[in-house]
Amino acid sequence: MGLRARLLALPRFADATALIAGDARWSYQELDLRARRAGAALAAAGVAPGDRVAVCAASSAEHIAAIVAVHHVGAILVPINPRASAPELRHVLEDSGASILLADSTTRPTLIGLTDRRVYDVVTLSQGEEPPALAVADEDIAAIVYTSGTTGRSKGAALSWRALVTAMATLGAAWGLGPGDRVSHALPLFHVHGLCVGIYASLLHGVAIALHSRFLPSTLLDDLAAGATVVHAVPTMYSRLLETLALAPELAPLLARARLFTAGSAALSPDVHAAFVGLGGPPILERYGMTETLITISNPLAGERRPGSVGLPLPGVEIRIVDDDGCELEAGTPGELQIAGPTLMTGYWNAPEATRAAFDGRWFRTGDTAIRGPDGYVQIIGRTSLDIIKSGGFKVGAREIEDVLARHPHVVEVAVIGRPDPEWGERVVAVVVARPGVDSAALAPTLAELARLELTHYKQPREIVFVDALPRNAMGKVEKAKLRATLSVSAAPDP
Hints:
With 495 residues, this protein is of the alpha/beta class. Among the domains are: 3-192, 3-Layer(aba) Sandwich (Rossmann fold); 388-486, GMP Synthetase, Chain A, domain 3, CATH 3.30.300. 31% of the residues lie in helices and 26% in strands. It has helices at residues 3-8, 28-44, 61-72, 86-96, 108-114, 161-175, 192-205, 217-225, 235-247, 270-278, 352-358, 398-406, 440-454, 480-486; strands spanning 17-21, 24-27, 52-56, 76-79, 100-103, 118-121, 141-146, 156-160, 182-185, 208-211, 230-233, 260-263, 285-290, 294-298, 312-313, 318-322, 335-340, 347-348, 359-360, 363-372, 378-383, 388-391, 394-397, 411-421, 425-434, 463-466. Strand 22 (388-391) and strand 23 (394-397) form a beta hairpin. Helix 2 (28-44) crosses helix 3 (61-72) and helix 6 packs across helix 7. The chain is globular, with a radius of gyration of 23 Å.
């Protein structure tokens, strides 16, 4: 059985629940039937193997059926953020060459006004009978997922069936996913976290998916009360959940009902991890992945889930940490994390130069700076280009400073960046969101003192800037490039 056929073999889970979304409660048999009919409708509309089909819609049961339908006809899925701006939409559509768009009632008017491509409704895409039988190679492209664009215009990572199914099969085995699980899923479906970890890994292992179009702590708690065993989330979701439980501590025992909470897409604060465990939840399992590599490193299911670490390489994955010259570094020395293995993207769609620049032979250059401990655990320090600040000849990791300042009770969140400085090369700048009603002028020296007490002198912020909110992309990652470009000069005096 080919890898694509392995994912599409949904009837093997028979009447087990596949999807719970709004009023829909579909078994795997029903999901398979609806996806096949939708696939037949796509084939009747002229969609052929290798064609790109863009899906731009809110999360729903019909959305999942449409995703599976695209794969039934051998087309390439191009998931799109339904809240993307018009320029972003145009870029993805033009770059991918998508010939057909699948939308919902919310996104369809925008897409029709934006392009002359055919736009179909995911809800009514169920008119066919049976999609054609196809022979699809494991190396064929299954999906083109566009990067978050934190460092420039988004690029489409072309993911083969080999990469996609291998990664999700490995992850499912590592996390013990199976038909007895139910996942609470409120992540967006245009990113590998929500699409691959949340959907593909679940379908591959017969997991029931409680699907939501947006995250609400109350909804997650309801899912736990209803029997959810697995939760996939980003750190901001856990922060919001903790805020809710602070107001309703009687609900905290619900955390113990799930066997697995995972975190990814951004760094999880050790303080959030500790607070979660303190309320009775199991240690949050942090893992590491990228659009271009899928999930490659994970804390163990059985074993130490180390706060501040993304864990150990998954089976079949090779990693190395190198210096600026590409020489491998010893354990404990920070450098760029590079990854090799079967889960890597084939390349960036229609971007051969960018693809060549992204690889060093068989090694993918992640652009993340990491340290590997003597026992193999990996810690991500930050983005090589954005989170490593070179000041006075020293390399300063933004994450360490952020963790210190974020512990102050009057700080909601903080991002540390480097600002050009004629003397030091870059000066360390802390951009802080303070709690409502807090006097920032009084808070600045307090934070400076905290930094003095806990950080080496060259790591201490030379400026503290207060803003109402940090700019974030659709996955909740702070856009530090945008922050550096637009940051006002209203900084507190040098501490």
